[in-house]
Amino acid sequence: MSLSSQRIADVYQEVINRNPGEAEFHQAVREVFDSLHRVLAKHPEYVEASTLERICEPERQIIFRIPWTDDNGGVHINRGFRVQYNSALGPYKGGLRFHPDVLLGTVKFLGFEQVFKNALTGLPLGGGKGGTDFDPKGRSDGEIMRFCQSFMTEAYRHLGDRVDIPAGDIGVGPREIGYLFGQYKRISNRYESGVITGKGITWGGSLVRTEATGYGTVYFTEHMLRTRGQSFDGTTALVSGSGNVAIYAVEKVHELGGTVVGASDSSGSVYDPDGIDRELLRDVKEVRRGRISDYAQERPRAEFIPGRGVWAVAEKTNIDVALPCATQNELHEKDAHTLIKAGVSAVAEGANMPTTPEAIRVLREAGVLFGPGKAANAGGVATSALEMQQNASRDSWSFEYTEQRLSEIMENIHIRCAETADEYGIPGDYVAGANIAGFTQVADAMIAQGVI
Ligand SMILES: NC(=O)C1=CN([C@@H]2O[C@H](COP(=O)(O)OP(=O)(O)OC[C@H]3O[C@@H](n4cnc5c(N)ncnc54)[C@H](O)[C@@H]3O)[C@@H](O)[C@H]2O)C=CC1
Ligand SMILES: O=C(O)CCC(=O)C(=O)O
């Protein structure tokens, strides 16, 4: 084993020892480290400056109590987290997740991914992430509001438009961002628009932010397809999930001439051979806050597949493109085999780390184009940065202009990943391209800024 590979193995073991039980965090670190052997062999300065060790340790981890009352006066306590991961490139930036499975390790894995993703956007953003184990399912608007106010009552002292800027993620959409921003404004006595992104359009939000992650994922996939002379036109696709990212991925695939025939939530999946009706999906999931089975009931030929992920649809029909847009580790090795059998030629991650390492290996060995989340879903945070730019200049841009900016950013991310993979002799390896390009940019900035 070379000296640099030995260092990677040692630092990885140290990460496991120092962060026991945080399997998702270990997985995220492992995936980046697996891409770095060639870089460290070529650039010993990264080893000498201990960048690997430093990049694995968040700059700050905040854990706090969130007391709130339900509609019957019952008192509940949840746990809140904000991991301010790395500020080498700019203020901490990344979303908040409200989901009962959230633990510190979940937020650390998401924060770690965010650091490299934000670097890939080419915009001045550090990386962070936050969340809570609060379960918003079935809670009234009043309960959600009181919860958000209590979350922000502690979180606000750690935030600021030049310090740390949260946004949405699973379970956090425009309603929650509104309540969080309202409480920040109230207790800080500042109308600091740039302190949070994903705001409503009439009070500092940006057009296209809602659509950005889903649209961006589809743009990235289109660029991958073009390297093989293909496009979305005439393709059949699957999208997992049915939330913010999934809904707008469906919309953009349809705009580009493809047909999405499956979507899902945690209760099961739908196969809709006529193509997912994006408006109905949004109405069922985001307005009525219903289940994916409700969607199936309202479409003549749609079939609900209870308890199974959307990849099960690939057992029924040919699939050209798969976009996992729900949650981590939702596309497994057996799903990869099913998709390959169904004819898939591209997979791109709208969600964060949705594909297991075994599934990625199987897809890549079969020659499937694979776009990792830190590149493919970076359009969301990039458009958050565009929202911050508009806030800072007290301006608001048109939909067309903002979408054009998003589209250019996604094209540049694709070029950067592809060129970096070429430079290191692994053409077409977008995983390595994204990891190396993100890592070197952050590590160079850390070295330039000294041992801090
Ligand atoms: N919202 C954003 O701008 C960004 C989100 N992401 C990632 O995209 C993913 C989805 O986030 P959002 O759409 O914002 O959240 P969301 O809360 O709007 O939607 C999540 C969807 O996933 C479904 N889901 C959850 N667990 C599932 C499971 N085990 N199987 C199938 N479906 C499941 C939920 O039912 C829901 O429809 C997450 O991994 C998130 O971290 C990444 C970049 C930006
Ligand atoms: O827009 C943002 O700041 C957050 C996006 C995010 O959480 C993500 O990229 O995973």
TrEMBL record:
One of its GO terms (molecular function) is glutamate dehydrogenase (NADP+) activity. NCBIfam families: PRK09414.1. Homohexamer. Substrate binds at residues 93, 114, 117, 168, 384. The record marks 169 as: Important for catalysis. The active site is at residue 129. CDD domains: NAD_bind_2_Glu_DH (cd05313). Belongs to the Glu/Leu/Phe/Val dehydrogenases family. GO terms for biological process: glutamate biosynthetic process. Keywords: NAD, Nucleotide-binding, Oxidoreductase. Residues 206-450 form the Glutamate/phenylalanine/leucine/valine/L-tryptophan dehydrogenase C-terminal domain. It comes from the Bacteria. One of its GO terms (cellular component) is cytosol. NAD(+) binds at residues 213, 244. InterPro entries: Aminoacid_DH-like_N_sf, Glu/Leu/Phe/Val/Trp_DH, Glu/Leu/Phe/Val/Trp_DH_C, Glu/Leu/Phe/Val/Trp_DH_dimer, Glu/Leu/Phe/Val_DH_AS, Glu_DH, Glu_Leu_Phe_Val_DH, NAD(P)-bd_dom_sf. Gene3D superfamilies: Glutamate Dehydrogenase, chain A, domain 3 (1.10.285.10), Leucine Dehydrogenase, chain A, domain 1 (3.40.50.10860), NAD(P)-binding Rossmann-like Domain (3.40.50.720). This is Glutamate dehydrogenase. SUPFAM superfamilies: Aminoacid dehydrogenase-like, N-terminal domain, NAD(P)-binding Rossmann-fold domains.
